[in-house]
Amino acid sequence: MKARYRRFAWIGLGLAAVGIAVALVLSAFRSNLVFFFTPSQVVAHEVPQSRPFRVGGLVEAGSLRRDPGSLTVHFLVTDTAKTVPVTYTGLLPDLFKEGKGVVAQGRMGADGAFHATEVLAKHDENYMPPEAKSAIEQAQRGPESMPSLHEARAR
Amino acid sequence: MIVNWFRYSSPVSFYPLAGRLSRAFGVLAAGFTIAGLYIGLVVAPTDATQGDAYRIIFLHVPTAWMAMLIYLAMAFWSALALGFNTRLSAMMAQALAPTGALMAALALWSGAFWGRPTWGTYWAWDARMTSTLILLFLYLGVIALRSAIDDPRRADRACALLSLVGAVNVPIIYFSVQWWNTLHQGSSISFTSAPKMAMTMVEGLLVMTAGVWSYCIAVTLARVRSIIVERERGSGWVASLIARQGAR
Amino acid sequence: MSGFFAMGGYAWYVWMSYGAAAVAVIVEILALRLRRRHAFDTARMAQDADAAGPATRPLADLRSNG
Q1: Ranges of each domain in chain B
Q2: Which terminus of chain A is less hemmed in, N or C, by CB atoms within 10 Å?
Q3: pLDDT-derived band of residue A32, with 50, 70 and 90 as boundaries?
C-alpha cells in the first residue's frame, strides 16, 4: 500500500477515535446516566421528568415483594431519609439483596413509582472473608444497624 | 556521588542503559506477577459478598492504576519534549502510548467481567467507566496521530499537545467516584484512610501492582530502544551498533 | 485442583479476565520482538543503500510502523 493511502487511513482512524470519545462524553453526560440520583432528590423533584435517569440507594429491608406468576418485583429504595418505590420486571442480579446497595435505571411513572428498565446491584469497597463478616454481624447484633452507606457519604 | 543525569538524556548513552534496565524489570515483573497471582488466586480468602468473582480485582485495579499513571507519564515526557525540544523525551512518550492503551483496555475488559457477576451488567454508562473508555480512545488517538504524520518532529509536537490536553481526563477518572453518585464503588485503598479489605487481599493487590509496574517499565524501555534505532538510523552510532551486534 | 479452576462458579468471568491479560502480554512481547527486528533490518538496508551511493536509494520511503 502506498504511504499516502496508509496515512489517510491513519488520519481516518484517529478522527474516528477522537470523534467517538467526544460523542461518548456528550451523550453520557447529557443523558444523566453517568451518575445516579438519591431518593431524597427524587422526592424533591430534582430529577428529569421526561427522560430516563438512575436512582440509587439501599433496598429497604423487608420491602421486596414479588408478583406471583411473573418476574415483576416491587421494592423501596432508601437513602435512610426518603424512600422511592420501584417496580421492575426481569431478572435481578445475584448481589441484589435487601439492605444492600442498588442502582436502577428508568423513569417515574404516573403512579408515583419508579419504573425501572434495568436494576444493578451496587456493592461497596469493603472486601472481607466470610468468617470476618459473620464476626462483624455477630458484634452488631443488638442495636439496629444499617450497612455502611457509601451513598450517604456521597450526598 | 553525583550522577550526571544529562548524560542519559541522549539516545546514544540511554540505549544500553535502557537494555539493562529492561531486562532487570522483566525479571522483577515475572517474579512479582507469579507471586501476586499465587496470593490473589490461591492464598487470599473468598469475599463474603462476591465469592470468588472479586479475585478479578487483582488484575483490574493494578491495570486501571497503570492506565492512569502511564498517561500522566506520557504527558510528563510530552511536556519535556515540548519545553526543551529533547528527542529522547518524545521517544519515551511515544513508547508509553501502546502499553498505556493495553492497560486501559485490560482494565475495561476485566471490569466488564467483574461487573457482570456482581452488578449484573457487563457495561454501564457510569462516570468511572465512561471516563476510562475515553482514556482508551485518547491513547488510540495519540497512536493514530503519530502514524498519520510522516515528519517525526512534527508528530512529536502534535502528539505532545494531544497528550497534554487529554491529561485533564485523569483526575476526572480518579475522583469520579467521589464527585458523583456512581455505580462504581469507591477506592478500597487510598492514601488517606486504612485499606477497606482483608490484609492478605491488600498484599496480593500490592504485589500484583509491583508486577504490573515492572512489566510496563520493562516493555516501555524495550520499545524505546526500537524507537531509538528507527529514528536514529541515519546516525553513525546506530551504524556501529548494527555492525557490532546486528539484529540478533 | 478442580475447585481452583471452578472459582466458586465464577470460572467464566475470572478466567476470561486473566486469560485476556495473558494473551495480551504474549502478543505485546511478540510485537516488540518483531518491531526490534524490523527496526534493525530497516536501518541495515538503509545503510547498505547509503554505502552503495546516494544515487541508488530505493528505500527512501521505507517507513516503520508498528
Answers
A1: 15-245
A2: N
A3: low
Residue C47 maps to a domain: yes
Count of structural domains within chain C: 1
User: Are A58 and A94 in the same domain?
Assistant: yes
pLDDT (tens digit per residue) in A57-108: 999 999 999 988 888 999 999 998 899 999 999 989 888 988 889 999 998 8
- Which residues of A have a CB under 8 Å from any CB of C? 3, 6
d(CA C12, CA C6): 9
3-state secondary structure of A76: strand
pTM for the structure as a whole: 0.85
State the count of interchain CB pairs (< 8 A) between A and B. Answer: 141
In whole angstroms, give the CA distance from residue B43 to residue B21. 31
B-chain CB neighbours of A118 within 8 Å are 121
Nearest to C10 among B51, B60, B105 (CB): B51
Query: CB distance B134–A151 less than 8 Å?
Result: no
Q: For residue C62, is it within any domain?
A: no
Amino acid residing at A39: P
| Contact state of B230 with C64 under an 8 Å Cβ cutoff | yes
C partners (3+ CB pairs within 8 A) are: A, B
CA-CA distance, A103 to A105, in Å (whole number)? 7
What range defines the domain where residue C11 resides?
A: 2-52
- Residue A150: the pLDDT is 43
Q: pLDDT tens for residues B109-154?
A: 999 999 999 999 999 888 899 899 999 999 999 999 999 888 999 9
